[in-house]
Each structure stands twice: as structure tokens, then as C-alpha cells.
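My current task is to audit a protein record that another person submitted. I need someone to confirm that the C-alpha cell line plausibly describes how this chain folds. Take the sequence as given and treat only the C-alpha cells as open to question. This is what I was given:
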Amino acid sequence: MTAPPTTFNLIDEPWIRVRTLSGDVEDRSLRSVLDDAASIRSLAGEIPTQDAAVLRVLLAVLLASVRGDDRPSDDEALDLWLDWARAETFPDAVDAYLDRVRPRFDLVDAEAPFFQVAGLTTASGRTSGLGKLIAEVPDGEPYFTTRSGREVESLSLAEAARWLVHCQAFDPSGIKTGAVGDDRVKGGKGYPFGYPAWAGNLGLVIMEGASLFETLLYNLPLVWSGPDDLPQWERPPVGPGIDVTHPAPRGPADLFTWPSRRLRLILAGDRVVDVQISNGDKLGPQNKHP
């Protein structure tokens, strides 16, 4: 069996599926997607909600890369937006930002794996199963499914990363695998608190451009992002329980990466063969106007 990888950094490794302007479908790294956004037609993941979830991560990176000491005025945000639109490329600040936060984008890091909780476990040793992660596989009797057999037994790290991002954004409400260290767990179960993961609460409206670069610009809420609007990868790693120090998002980058679930990918060699999905931080749709 292949030894488990010691690193898989999403900034450098190809994992985001895109469609180029020539119509080819390719897997690209996060850095490559942002560097070449003007030559990419769109994201091209397994399902549309996966593309929406990945888009939100890209938007959070862009917002964080130009975050200042104050929330920008309308004029300042417009000037920055126009500079990017005229240049048809994102500034060097994006690359510099990715270099700075690179350690937090490692999917298999031992201490702070991307969008996961290191050492997440259950009292019984039970896990959730990949069927809970792969949203295009119906739970129970899979009469209408786009995959079966080996396709649901394991995932490459690249595909697992896409479904991980999707799970944090769109995972449905319901009973979850109860995590050790979460005070909400009763009888080994994490009972629902009434809401799906954040992006599944109200749905999304995305304005699409002729290229991914235009799509990112059209959906970038620069004026709403201030100095305390930190994405998940700039905050201390979460544990299995509620983060009582951070009860509500402080801006769009924070919201786009909200830790709705506590997750841990389980590897066998270089393949993801299982997952634990537990309850994360509750976030309802009420009173979320900026």
C-alpha cells in the first residue's frame, strides 16, 4: 500500500476543477486558478453547489489579500475594483498573501488540516462514511446516482478537498456523528440544531461573467470587509466543540469560510476512504445584514 502523504497543500497542488476558455476541463491549484482566472471560463466541479462553495473560498482569499486597517469606503472599494478590472489580473498582493497563509492550506497537516479538526474522533470509533461527504450520492437506496461501486469507496485527495469545501458550505441538517470533546453530544450522537451548513440556508445568487476573473470581480463584496474579517485559515484551529469566542461572522470572508461542521478525512495510503462529519458552529439566517 502506498504510504500516506505527509503534505498536500491546496495552494500548490491541483484540486480545483475548471473549464478553460478553449473548453478543456483541468484540475488546477488555488494559486494557478487565481493567476490564470482571465483564461478560465468557469469552475467545473462535480455539481453546481460544489462550484459555488469553491468560489466562496476564492473570494475569501481575494478579500483577505487586500484587507486593510479600516473598512474601505465606497469610493476606495470602487477604485480598487476598477484597477483590477482594467488590469484583467489580480495584484501581487494575492500571491504574497498565499505565501503567508500557506501552512494552513495543507489538507493532511497533523495539527491544523485545512477545514478539518486534527484528531477528531468518536467514543465508539464509528465514522460517517463517504456517502455523507459525496453530495451526489443519495443516502440510503441510491436509485438516482451518478456514481457507485469503487467510485464511492475512496476519493483522491483532490476530489476529497472539493467535497470537503462543499460539506462546510452545504451539508444538510440532521443527526451527525458525535465528536469526543463536544458537550452537545448525547448518546454518541450530535443532534441537529435546525440549520444546514451556512450556504444551504438561503441559497445563493451568483453573477457570472465571460471568464472566472469576471465572475470573481462581480461577486466580490470589497466594501463589506474590514480589518477583523478573517477567514477560517487565519483564526486559531477549531476544536471539536463550539467556538464560544467567535459566535458570529465579522464579515464576508469570515462568512464564506464559516466552520459549519467539524470534519476529519480518513486516509488509507494516498486515498481518502472515510470521513467523520460532526456538528460545527451554529449559524442561522436571521439578522445577518451588514
Summary: The helical segments are 30-35, 48-65, 74-87, 92-101, 157-170, 199-202, 212-218, 252-256. The mean pLDDT is 93.
